Amino acid sequence: MRLLGLGIFLLFTTHAQAGALTFYGQIQANYGDVRAKTDGHTTQRQALGSTGSLVGIKGFTPLNHKLDITFMNETRLHLQTHKNNLRSLSNQKQHWVGLRSPYGELRTGKQLMPNQVLTYELDRFQDQFGSAETLIQPNTTVTDSLLYIQRLGKAEIALGYGRDKDTTLSERSVRGGLINYKAKQNWVLGAGVEVKPNTYVDGRLSINFKTDKAQLGALYQHLDTQSTQVQGQDVNALLLNASRTQGNWTLKAQLGRKKDKTASATKLSALGLEYAVNPKTQLYAEYSVVKDKDGTAQLGAESQLKGQRVQATSVGMVYKF
């Protein structure tokens, strides 16, 4: 796959005038005061990290007037502190090549499965402490996958098949599908399903309303787990989010609830304020809380603290290029 990607890149540079090549990325950093409380005992630590920094290249080159070669290579850099030590982890999030024609686009490589795109698009607190991944199955990539995308009028259909290298699960194959339908100019309805045989069935429904100054969204997930190696049984999760922009300021909020048959409900609430210094740079502040009576509440991987109530007050910066 790496040799194929290199070949595509060299082919593109040969036909650079006919295609398009885009370098992109973002630098993200945050600092938070995180506190976990269980039965009256509070554990506190300061967390410094960067979970949203990435760099990538994407583009296409035409083979003829009806067929294009497309590609993306994206790497995400993850930095975090733990017990005064700085750890780094580089994760190649997406690496795929594809063929695009009037009959659709077929991609192969490492990429997001269709169902996970629903959450990715809705989460206004992505890469922050109040992220939807506290409740919703994380947006992971699948290796050795095939993805077919077709646009039919107002609808976008995606079908995917892949093999995951997660050796902790007995069955590695993953199959997924997604339909996005633009009901009106500002409304998008989505439905998706992902199946890993003998492991889980993940179904999601979403609705998203967006204008230049406001956004409202809702996501429902039903996760039917069929293996003891996957945490939770018959999980139902609901995520609500909203934002309002006035000038350079954006106020955003997120509420969520997750419940399964084997544990108490987990509740998420987050409130944030963003300030656009310029079109490429944003500063933000956030207050987020997760509650769980079983003491398993956790504000994402950055907190590394669990309790009946975990809260974080954080500030951060995002620079996009």
Give the SSE layout:
Layout: H1 2-14, E1 20-38, E2 41-62, E3 68-82, E4 85-101, E5 104-112, H2 116-122, E6 141-152, E7 155-163, E8 173-181, E9 187-196, E10 200-210, E11 214-225, E12 235-246, E13 249-259, E14 266-278, E15 281-292, H3 300-303, E16 309-320
Antiparallel strand pairs: 1-2, 1-16, 2-3, 3-4, 4-5, 5-6, 6-7, 7-8, 8-9, 9-10, 10-11, 11-12, 12-13, 13-14, 14-15, 15-16
Summarize this structure briefly.
The protein has 3 helices and 16 strands. By secondary structure, the protein is mainly beta. The longest helix has 13 residues, at 2-14.
Description:
Helices cover 7% and strands 64% of the residues. It is mainly β and 321 residues long. It has one domain: Beta Barrel (Porin). The chain has a 16-stranded antiparallel beta barrel. Strand 4 (85-101) and strand 5 form a beta hairpin.
The best one-word shape is globular
Question: Any idea of the CATH class?
Answer: Mainly Beta
- Low-confidence runs (pLDDT<50, min 5 residues)? 1-17, 167-171
> What does the largest sheet look like?
16 strands, antiparallel, barrel
In whole angstroms, how far apart are the ends? 27 Å
Number of domains: 1
Total strands: the figure is 16
Features:
mainly beta, 321 residues, 3 helices, Porin, 16 strands, 7% helix, 64% strand
